[in-house]
Amino acid sequence: MSPHSSQLPLKHMICFLLVVFICSFVFAYQYIEKSNYCLGASNNVPPPFTTSYLVENSGYGNDIIQKLADYAILNEKVSDETENFKKSYHGTGNRFWKAANFDGCCLPNTIIIGAKKAGTRALINFLDMHPEVAVARNEVHFFDREENYSLGLKWYAKRVKPKQGAKALIEKSPFYFIDKETPEKVVAYNSSIRLILLVRDPVNRILSDQTQLYYNSGKTTPNLVQKLYPDNRSDIDQTAKILQPSLYAKYLRRWITVFPRTQIHIVDGDKLTQANPYYEMKLLEKFLRLSSFYSPEKFVVEKTKGFYCPVQPNGTLKCLSSSKGRQHLEFDQKLLNQLKLFFAPLNKDFARLVGQDFSWS
Ligand code: A3P
Predict the structure, then answer these.
(1) 3-state secondary structure of 321
(2) pLDDT digits 0-9 by tens, 38-86
(3) Nearest CA to ligand 1 atom 19
(4) Does any ligand 1 atom lie closer than 6 A to the CB of residue 122?
(5) Distance, CA 123 to ligand 1 centroid (Å)?
């Protein structure tokens, strides 16, 4: 007799028990579904099919029965949301979600739309200091990613960390600025929403972007010359991906075709870093119609990196992580000069468009 043959029946037995277990599990789940089991709607449920009945009679523990019940509720919630989505997104001829049709709490009423690498993390943290501001901790990407947009307004509202007394509920997703469909989706969502656009010297923004891509890619991203002058062309490729967020006038024009200019506040990112952020935050306070909160003492320069950081109520500084405000890679001076030349007329155009002067325009 082979040494393995005595293990064979045991293996078969285990397989058999496993199949029986799975079948019973599926059966119990169908039992729950058929009975339309739902917490809070127990009046509709015939008396025997309660959690305690199933615990007593199915042979499964309370935790398993509860999980199955939760699963049934979850399914119900998802299909509710899908129904709402169909109504508002397809059914009525409107392809987009509308905040006015949502009766729950905490939908964003203010968005930092960009630009990438212009200081958006610092800005949302400074805004979060205000007692009347609640923010979404992470980048939300609701309007620019279909997989998030399809999850609906309940999902969107949950991204904001609730704060009692909050008047401005703010999210930041810097890709919105250059995403083609986002302006139309945002105006459909809430045409009186307030938008914040943060800009910095567009050449420095590119250098910052390239530095981040270099480290995030494990130093494998193509260099800036390869990205800006593909196939050894002699002029800058205006469609280069890394260039896009710096084309401030081009993308802002899309936004001001759907929003009044008065609903878009432009923050000068260079002023935000080089001077006490208090000055820019005061302007934002006014734009967002918040009570007076910011004062110069609320920000102190942290000596290692030289950036202003918020002073917390316990007196310590809340600075950003090491990936923000790090040393840029070294770039060829000729390339920098070409970029400056390229941006000179675009910067003038942007300054004219927004009616504001910048140190770099
Ligand atoms: P650098 O890392 O190139 O210096 P974002 O948050 O949009 O990705 O922008 C990152 C940029 O925020 C940083 O770019 C940095 O210059 C800027 N920034 C503005 N205020 C800052 C602060 N208080 N601390 C650190 N970085 C700040």
Answers:
(1) coil
(2) 222 222 233 334 444 444 444 444 444 444 444 444 344 444 555 554 4
(3) 119
(4) yes
(5) 9
